[in-house]
Design goal:
- The structure holds two protein chains of two kinds.
- Chain A is built from 13 helices and two strands.
- Chain A is mostly helical.
- Chain A has two domains: 40 residues, no CATH class; 237 residues, MetI-like (MetI-like fold), CATH 1.10.3720.
- Chain A starts with a helix and ends with a helix.
- Chain B has one domain: MetI-like fold, CATH 1.10.3720.
- Classes of the chains: A mainly alpha, B mainly alpha.
- Chains A and B meet through helix 2, helix 4, helix 5, helix 6 and helix 7 of A and helix 1, helix 3, helix 4, helix 5 and helix 6 of B.
- Chain A: Belongs to the binding-protein-dependent transport system permease family.
- Chain A: Keywords: Cell membrane, Membrane, Transmembrane, Transmembrane helix, Transport.
């Protein structure tokens, strides 16, 4: 017993790893902090501090001058009573539904059609060009195409199709729908690219086996590719969902949320309230609402996806 | 029989869809190349004989102050992502190699910096920038672009540096290298590929930004490119559309060229890289 007790302390130097690791951790503690500090500092000052400040301002009345005065939930009450907000909320919803259906399904279609095809990447090139263009440039191009009597109207007229007289960007909800079209034009390519990567990572064996069993075409896709693409589809739809809630650039360039604020989304309403009307409290309330909606949507979506995946 | 049909049908559908996708590009290029005097708003599909693209680009360059905006934006989209990648690599190094205490907490804190919408920080940034007298300054723009691109850089760099065996660090310590030297001479050179991929993604993001420029800048010298293009559209959208279109084409060329030439890096990095 006693021999063991004596031997124990002598053993420590023979096991250098534990002791020296402790020493090393100690001696690098300060340099570890020094290397990590800049990142923490930058993020804290320029991202988290403003975040907290916006949250606080949303409970106050403030126009940038003087000091904010506490008004409790008044900004939120006014917000829900404002018809502009209701329109904005409705448009945001249309954007969400539009962007998670159109560009995602078109992207999937293009990926499936071009997958395993000779020169497949060349066929995908036209869809990738718009993705490399900024939202502002996309807005400039489509505003030009969709102006009254512009490119689209002239084409419809020449083909003898109806709709040449449509005021694409002036009438709601038409203007929101065509702007979703512009966004889909931009986003489809990247979704196609992501789905192609997903298709390439599907193992060959089960596909070969299904082929031997006589599966092909639609049935092959429905029962083999589609289930295996499921995790990737979750990611693509999730990303589109979050991105659609933040849509700003295209709308700002094409309609500025108008005419008469009828094509605003929450992201545009926040900008409008804060920087056009200088109602900082009201604008902050919209920002907080948008953030809460984004979080709830993302979490609900991910939880549902994960739970159905487990049961399947 | 069905496979024959599929062999023809698949490329046919792709080709038709692809052509539809190129139509707006066609309209952009054709009309951006028309001399202002010969542009007719009811004849946008038909090219005219004269080719005035470069004149129009020059017009946009001078008239809209795009020259200043291009200089500023080049600075922003090179310096800010470079700083973000370095600062992100530094915290990655601190966590992975130097085993920062509660490293995961600090990492989540930094990465969490971009999960909320930009709208949450615009107003305080504007007010704070005015207070700190960096509103409408290149320094202020650089600071926010660095901050906004940092969380994603930290994510990728931490993951990448985590793949480097810790023995590398221990061996360097045995040789008597300081942590600073190990970071600059060993870890950074070993992660060049990740550094470049993140840098390209973030540079594109900064190049394409509209909202931060709209809120935090005003003058021609400071204002970034997309903000300048938007105001060009607002001013000349009616009277000199060809100039606006030429401007749109000009600002898009760099990112299109960059994207298409680095598609491989992008398609690997994109899984994580979307904002």
């Amino acid at each position: 017993m006693s021999g063991l007790a004596v031997a124990a302390p002598e053993q420590t130097p023979e096991h250098p790893t534990a002791a020296s690791r402790r020493r090393r951790r100690g001696s690098y503690r300060w340099s570890a902090r020094a290397f990590s500090l800049p990142a923490v500092l930058v993020v804290a000052v320029l991202l988290y501090l403003p975040f907290l400040w916006t949250t606080w301002i949303s409970f106050t009345e403030y126009n940038g001058l003087g000091s904010p005065s506490w008004v409790g939930l008044d900004n939120y009450r006014d917000m829900f009573a404002d018809p502009n907000f209701t329109t904005s909320l409705r448009n945001t919803l249309i954007w969400v539904v539009g962007t998670i259906t159109v560009p995602v399904s078109l992207g999937l279609l293009i990926a499936v059609l071009s997958h395993g095809m000779r020169f497949g990447s060349w066929f995908r090139l036209p869809f990738l060009i718009p993705y490399a263009i900024s939202g502002v440039a996309v807005g400039v191009v489509w505003r030009f195409v969709l102006q009254n009597g512009g490119g689209l109207s002239q084409a419809l007229d020449a083909l003898g199709l109806p709709g040449a007289d449509s005021r694409w960007l002036l009438d709601a909800p038409m203007n929101t729908l065509v702007m979703i079209g512009a966004a889909a034009w931009q986003q489809t390519g990247v979704n196609a690219l992501l789905f192609v990567i997903g298709l390439q990572s599907i193992p060959r064996e089960p596909i070969e086996a299904a082929k031997l069993d006589g599966a092909s075409g639609w049935r092959m896709f429905r029962h083999m590719h589609w289930p295996m693409l499921r995790p990737l589809t979750t990611v693509v739809v999730g990303l589109s969902l979050v991105a659609s809630l933040k849509t700003f650039d295209i709308i700002w360039v094409m309609t500025k949320g108008g005419p008469g604020r009828n094509s605003e989304t929450l992201a545009v309403t926040m900008y409008e309230e804060t920087f056009v009307t200088s109602a900082y409290g009201a604008g902050s309330a919209v920002a907080v609402f948008l953030t809460v909606v984004t979080f709830i949507a993302a979490i609900t979506y991910l939880r549902r996806q994960l739970s159905t995946e487990r049961t399947v | 029989m069905t496979s024959m049909a599929a062999r023809v049908l698949r490329p046919a559908i792709l080709l038709i869809l692809g052509l539809i996708w190129l139509v707006p590009v066609y309209l952009l290029v054709v009309n951006a190349a028309k001399p202002a005097a010969r542009y007719a708003s009811d004849q946008v599909w038909r090219p005219v004989g004269e080719f005035a693209l470069f004149d129009n680009i020059q017009e946009a360059w001078e008239l809209a102050g795009l020259a200043d905006a291009v200089t500023s934006t080049l600075i922003y989209s090179v310096v800010a992502p470079a700083l973000a990648v370095l600062i992100g690599a530094a915290i990655g190094f601190g966590i992975v190699a130097l085993r920062l205490r509660h490293g995961f907490f600090w990492f989540v804190l930094v990465f969490g910096g971009t999960v909320f919408p930009l709208q949450m920080i615009l107003m305080p940034l504007f007010v704070g920038y005015v207070e700190a007298e960096i509103y409408d300054s290149r320094l202020g723009m650089l600071a926010i672009y660095t901050a906004i691109t940092l969380p994603f850089s930290a994510l990728v760099m931490r993951n990448f540096l985590g793949g480097i065996a810790h023995q590398v660090f221990e061996a360097a310590v045995m040789d008597g290298a300081t942590t600073w030297r190990i970071f600059w001479r060993i870890y950074l050179p070993m992660s060049t590929s990740a550094l470049v991929a993140v840098f390209i993604l973030q540079a594109t993001f900064v190049w394409n930004d509209l909202l931060l420029g709209l809120v935090l800048s005003q003058s021609d010298e400071v204002r970034p490119l997309m903000t300048a293009l938007t105001s060009l559209q607002n001013t000349y959208g009616g009277s000199q559309l060809v100039t606006v279109l030429a401007g749109g084409l000009l600002v898009s060329l760099p990112t299109v060229v960059l994207f298409l030439s680095t598609q491989r890096i992008f398609s690997r990095g994109l899984n994580l890289g979307q904002f």
